[in-house]
Amino acid sequence: MNNIQINTEYVTLGQLLKMTDAISSGGMAKWFLSENExxxxxxSEYRRGRKLRDGDVINIPGSGAFRVVEQTSxx
Length: 75
Fold this sequence. Notes:
Elements: E1 2-6, E2 11-12, H1 13-19, H2 29-35, E3 38-40, E4 43-45, E5 51-52, E6 57-60, E7 64-70
Parallel strand pairs: 1-7
Antiparallel strand pairs: 2-5, 3-4, 3-6, 6-7
């Protein structure tokens, strides 16, 4: 499982798909989610605006599993 570090309170599922190179542009998020079963914490998710926070686990078909990790100012 790969960690995805964020320096904000949350990141949207659409942004995460782009960060992991599952999609090449943000405009592809809606299509990708309609064609693939993406799991957030073990449950299917189809909303590109879903807020992902520290500790959330996302499984993306063809890309792998990722954990959101909030980067604190001390790191």
